[in-house]
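Q: Sequence in, structure out?
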Amino acid sequence: MEFPILLIVIIALALIFDYINGFHDAANSIATIVSTKVLTPFQAVLWAALWNFAAFFLAAYVIGEFKIGNTIAKTVNENFITLEVIFSGLVAAIAWNLLTWWFGIPSSSSHTLIGGFLGAALMHAFMMDYHSVAAAQPELGFFDTLKHAFHQVTSQDVVKFNKVIPIFLFIFMAPIIGMIISIIITLIIVHLYKKSNPYKADKSFKRLQLASSALFSLGHGLNDAQKVMGIIGAALIYYHVEMLNDPIYVNLESGARFDYFAEHYLWVPLVSFLAIGLGTMSGGWKIIKTMGTKITKVTSLEGVSAETAGAITLFITDHFGIPVSTTHTITGSIIGVGLTKRVSAVRWGITVSLLWAWILTIPISAIVAGVTYLLVRFIS
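A: Exactly. Output:
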């Protein structure tokens, strides 16, 4: 089977994004274990990358499905998905990811990808409606045509809100859940070890950090690699349904197509998990500094609490098939351990800056993707 060139480019770009996601989000998995000097940065990225890739086997052979990938593929109505839409969304996501990485801002790769996908699909729908209105009512002026097209887009169910609303809510819920769990874990550990020798306790926590960071890296791989798999899946499903008119895909219910794809294109999740692991090995030292030291000073005890809380949050959201940001999750968990000491232990100026980056990620990615889609249409 020969794939069209644009589909090959999309798969390549998606894996490049996955790789960038790995080094962009490396800080999520290793910032606390590096800042507490349990592992050197080099050892830490190797450790995190190993567990990022191990998440593939957990998803494929233990859980037996890729819920988050399925959710991502269904955030946009299938009628408004094209290869140009997916390409434009990926270009926007890569651009925003590289920009925030360069400035050391721990933004969400997940929401960047989702924002890009939504923005390109909405622009595609708008352009279709604009041409439809212009053809049907040629007497309308330019601005009246725009107005009618915009009104038409809002009534077309381009965005699947039953999938997107939980993703938006968990921009705020994931860090709050991580924060609450980390506070509870920290208070329990402090109570259990209050009579222990501080030196021996610290050695125990440093050993435990190897386990907690592995768990968080496992959750990171499980969550983030599936998002790229979902985008590639959307492209391949479009290829089979719209370009090949493949009777197997056409006759399947829309909801069953992704599961069929995952079963017959197992190399897609495999290379998605591999790419994010390789990206993690490349590290993201600018962001590690922000995550590991600037939000609050983290001890090995607090590192165990933050990483364990983050991992629990990621496993819960994976169970429900809700794509969340590992960046948001671990940030909330780190804030939680800071709050157990005192409110002033958290550097709120840094935290507020991160919050603005989180809020702006989806709309900025959507706008960039929309503009990219217009450029692609103009060139083609």
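The chain has one domain: 3-379.
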